[in-house]
Amino acid sequence: INTWRSQFSQLTFIGEIPPKPTGSVTVLPPIKPNDGPQAFPDAEKENLPVFTMDYPRIQIPFEITLWVLLASFAKIGFHVYHKITVWVPESCLLISIGLIVGAIMHSVHEEPPAVLTSNVFFLYMLPPIVLDSGYFMPIRPFFENVGTVLWFAVVGTLWNSIGIGMSLFAICQIEAFGVQDINLQENLLFATIISAVDPVAVLSVFEDVSVNEQLYIVVFGECLFNDAVTVVLYNMFNFVAEMPVVEPVDVFLGVARFFVVGLGGMGFGVLFGFAAAFTTRFTANVREIEPLFIFMYSYLAYLVAELFAISSIMAIVTCALTMKYYVEENVSQRSCTTIRHVIKMLGSISETLIFFFLGVVTITTEHEWNWGYILFTLLFAFVWRGLGVLVLTQIINPFRTIPFNLKDQFGLGYGGLRGAISFALAFTLPDNIGRRQLFITATIAIIIFTVFIQGISIRPLIEFINVRRTNRNLGTINVEVHCRLMEHTIAGIEDLCGQWSHYYWKDKFLKFNNRVLRKILIRDNRAESSIVALYKKLELQNAMEILDTVSGDISAAPSIVSLYEEKKSSAKPKKKFMAADLRNMHDLLSKNMYKIRQRTVAYTRKHALPNESQTKEILMRRHASIRRSLRPGSFQSSVVPKSHKYFSLPAGKSLDSKFPPGRLSHAGKLSKPSLKGCTLYSNQLPHMPYGGLFC
Amino acid sequence: MKISPAHIIRLYDRFEFLDKEGSGQLRLEDFAEVKELAMNPIGDRIIGAFFSPGQETVDFPSFVRILAHFRPTDKNRAKDSTQPEPVNSRTSKLKFAFQLYDQDRDGKISRAELLQVLREMLGMQVTEEQLESIADRAIQEADLDRDDAISFEEFRKSLEKVNIEHKMSIRFLR
After folding, report:
1. Average pLDDT of chain A?
2. By the 8 A CB rule, do A630 and B15 touch?
3. CB B116 within 8 A of CB A622
4. What is the pLDDT of residues A623-663, one digit of tens each?
5. Residues of chain A neighbouring B138 (CB-CB closer than 8 A)
6. Worst-scoring range by mean pLDDT, A53-62, A373-382, A427-436?
7. B51 and B99 both lie in a single domain
């Protein structure tokens, strides 16, 4: 083709085309390449191109990759200088970088990537984040607080929307602001958009402030579940904004729609969750693609919910909650790890991108600014949320086992940040709303205000008012140690009693679960020893192997044998302790004493997988001390009580198959596990040194 | 005030659930199966508290008797010295905690026993010297008769300002 083209253009250079012969066929005269001036290089001698470039072909994936990389570099960059992330939440930094990039792009008159539409946001960027939140949601605290969560999510959002809408409408009547053309429905619509508390923004701020578990769960849950209300209200007001008159029938339909949206979302979620669990029952032979099912089913739940315009966030969260329990039992250890890591990664990327683009788009969209409207919006958003929290907590506190005090309420109110969801909703406003640009600008203003001002200041404020931190000078070392011991005791007894507390439904569900659900959804449902499951989960097998091969000199692990030796060295002179020493001790204790059931620790690092090192330490230590106490020489001391001697190594029959054969060889002869009663007495030991544990 | 029948039934359900063999008695392994107890730093001690010295199994009445320690204290109980101390009184709760430390049942928490508990409750980064100073200091604070050990009375005295009734109670056992 190229040669033809070049020859053709040569032809035009030459001059006129000779007249066509009248007749049937039109034929161009033969081309004589050697005639006329050689304007182009000799076409027949063109060589094979060594280096070509074809940008348009790869443009879209290339730009996406570059944006993702850029945002990720920003993330790396923040952590290079530690001090920044202490005071400024990551979301603020990302938005700032986005603003800078947006400004650069604006100044060179580039358009932001065309992929940044609200469709992309809702279909591609939001699901990973919500899946991340749902999958790692701490289940027990969540269900203990489910009433409060729903109360705040539903009633709180309603309160906020209607309150802000009405107040703004009142403001609109004032002539001075020049916004009289906004009618009530449009105000309500706008209010709905901006009262949606955003999980992405809130969690990224709360991660830096170690809040207590209750507060975290309630805010977290509220963010996730207010989506149902927001969707309904948004659609309702959207629909209604076009109508001149609102009838009571519409309000009633709105309520009905709310139930459809909320319950429908949950229903779809549970359905897909069970489907995923059931599927993983049969994946024993296709381990490599096991993680895929999790993602596909969750995403499917999301999309199907979007199809029916019901709350997709609730669908995906419920799906993740439902399937996690069963899937993690069915799936191999590696798949489990892969799933967790990939979910975290996707969630992290999405979040980074969202904030980044928020910054970029802020600069590049057209704005319509109206001082009065926007300032009053900020004011009302703040005021109504505060009032809402106060009133709602008063009502719900009597029903709570742990009532919210004022500090918690402050955290709840002040922690209501708006974020990308409001932003995307603003962009999907239909064009027939007159003041669309104003709404978009106002939304962006609110988001930036809450994320920056509230986000940065929440940490110092919470530290300032939070006296729940252990007061260092209160109490002696004795009190601190003994109190922690008592807390562990209570936690242990509660766990022993099985948390049945006074929840009738939970009991019922657990029974149903054990009898029916587990049989259907879990492959191979023998009553696997829960200890084995725990060890598997913590991947302690490798650790144990190492412990075994190193011949017992683990200096960090405490030894029960030393109990005997200690008694000799009692004649030490009394030490004098300075105040500084005491302070150090208190410090040491508060930092290093194991926390109860790892409650708050797990939730404060949002971007990390749950930290299980505390559990690993405890278990390894116990394992090491058991090993040590089993050495033949160590039984001179009759001081060692029986209760120290055994423990938590499983009585399950299948245990020896879980551990590699190497460890059994340490035990020498191991009799086949038919023994159930594994109490150890010193007289048994010579016969079954190590294997006695593994019966 | 007795435990309500509904609670007893629930506790019995739980007892049966833990008793994997159906023998009507709980053994060490049954307790060990509860994985949260395995993750508890003093899990062994808690389990040990259920077994009387020399016993290898726990029957249901003993199970309930130990758990009864954690019922909330009846504040209105008249101090009647002729009746035996109820099992959920402040003193009894303190005694329970004391016995978690005092594994050899000699009535005193020796320095070694305290050190052992500290080892179990603190992370691995804490050095042995630090542990020993903490233990020394604790004994110094509480030990009034200078025998380098903490007796039950000294233990009780050191915790006189702490609300034991609240700390060592489980609300749902009311």
Report:
1. 71
2. no
3. no
4. 766 666 655 544 433 333 443 343 333 333 333 333 333 33
5. 476-478, 481
6. A427-436
7. no
Count: domains in chain B: 2
In-domain check, residue B83: no
In a domain, A541, yes or no: no
Q: Please say whether the beta carbons of A609 and A340 come within 8 A.
A: yes
Burial classification of residue A128, based on how many CB atoms lie within 10 Å of its CB (0-12 exposed, 13-18 middle, 19 or more buried) = buried
Q: Any idea which residue has 């003041």 for tokens? A: A435
Q: Where in A143-285 does DSSP place strands (E)?
A: none
Output A586 or A122, whichever has higher pLDDT: A122
How many domains does the structure of chain A reveal? 1
Same structural domain, B65 and B104: no
Alpha helix (H) ranges present in A550-610? 562-566, 579-592, 599-603
Closest CA to B137 of A543, A642, A576, A538: A576
pLDDT value for A287: 85
ipTM over 0.85: yes
**b/e per residue A568-607 (b: at least 16 CB within 10 A):** eeeeeeeeebeeeebeebbebbeebbbebbbeebbbbebe
How close A646 gets to chain B, by Cα (Å)? 9
Side chain identity, residue A686: P
CA neighbor of A327 nearest in space, from A266, A264, A268, A272: A272
Mean pLDDT over A546-573 rounds to 41
Q: The domain that contains A197 carries what CATH number?
A: 1.20.1530.20
Tell me the pLDDT tens digit for each residue of A609-631. 555 677 777 777 777 666 666 55
Instruction: For Cα atoms A409, A414, A420, give the angle at the middle one, nearest 5 degrees.
Output: 130
Task: Tell me if B135 is assigned to some domain.
Answer: yes
Amino acid identity for residue A666 in this structure: H
Q: Of all residues in chain B, what percent carry a pLDDT higher than 90?
A: 0
pLDDT in tens, B125-150: 788 888 888 888 888 888 888 888 88
Pairwise CA distance, residues A577 & A264, whole Å: 65
Tokens of B50: 């259920």
H or E segment and range at residue A451 = none
Inside any domain, residue A70: no
The answer to the question of residue A34 being in a domain is no
Tokens of A514: 């054990």
pLDDT of residue B78: 62
- Domain, as residue range, for A256: 114-465
Beta bridge partners of B58: B26
- Which residues of B fall within a CB distance of 8 Å from A561? none
Helix (H) or strand (E) holding A466: none
Annotate B58-120 with DSSP letters as a single string.
EEHHHHHHHHHTTSPP-TT----TTSPPPTTSHHHHHHHHHHHH-TT-SSEEEHHHHHHHHHH
pLDDT score recorded for residue A244: 64
Output the pLDDT for position A500: 47
Look at residues A381, A317, A257, A310 and name the one whose alpha carbon lies nearest to residue A126.
Answer: A317
In a domain, A683, yes or no: no
Query: The dihedral of CA B104, B110, B112, B114: what is its sign?
Result: positive
In A567-638, at which residue ranges do the beta strands (DSSP E only) sit? none
Q: Which of residues 155-174 of B touch A (CB under 8 A)?
A: 155, 158-159, 161-162, 164, 167-173
- Distance, in Å, from the CA atom of A81 to the CA atom of A86, rounded to the nearest integer, reads 10
Structure tokens at A413: 């109110």
Domain of residue B56 covers 5-69
pLDDT per residue as tens digits for the range A99-145: 888 888 888 876 666 556 778 888 888 899 889 888 888 777 787 78
Mean pLDDT of A61-78: 85
- The C-alpha angle B79, B82, B83, rounded to 5 degrees, equals 75
Q: What is the Cα–Cα distance from A498 to B30, expressed in whole angstroms? A: 13
pTM reported for the whole predicted model: 0.66
Q: Hey, are the CB atoms on A487 and B167 less than 8 Å from each other?
A: yes
- In this complex, do A679 and B140 lie within 8 Å of one another by their Cβ atoms? no
B38 and chain A: CB distance < 8 Å anywhere? yes
